[in-house]
Amino acid sequence: MEYKTVTSPEKKNISLVAHDNMKPALMSWCKKHSDKLSQHTLYATGTTGTILKKEAGLDVNALISGPLGGDQQIGGLIAERKIDMMIFFWDPLEAQPHDPDVKALLRLAAVWNIPVACNHSTADFLINSSLFDTSYPKSIPDYSSYLTART
Prior knowledge:
Blueprint: E1 3-8, E2 13-18, H1 23-32, H2 34-37, E3 41-44, H3 46-56, E4 60-62, H4 70-79, E5 85-89, H5 99-111, E6 116-117, H6 120-127, E7 136-141, H7 144-150
Parallel strand pairs: 2-3, 2-5, 3-4, 5-6
Antiparallel strand pairs: 1-7
């Protein structure tokens, strides 16, 4: 696999996702950090986005509900390099009917080397990092030779 370096911008595109049992925790976290989050472009799956707009007062681009394809929409944005960071409060103790979608979303985040927080503590580390509000170089897969060979 070949890699290339790209620069993640100062103003991040951040996806916010939460399983049903974790939505209150994400809401609380977002309210606590609304000043910082509001400086970035936010995306969320449907229900989470609607609640964030209403309860946290954040400007959120709400996609469709996760089980209806919202997880895949976020995954598509990651693959298109339109998401720079993901906060995904997932419930590790409850089986999800759309578990393959969740695993695919986490896999894409790993492939495209975006920071992911899956719980409150990790989200705190990310938002308080000196890199949160600055641009930074990162390595991503370089598929240009693969794509050129296919045409």
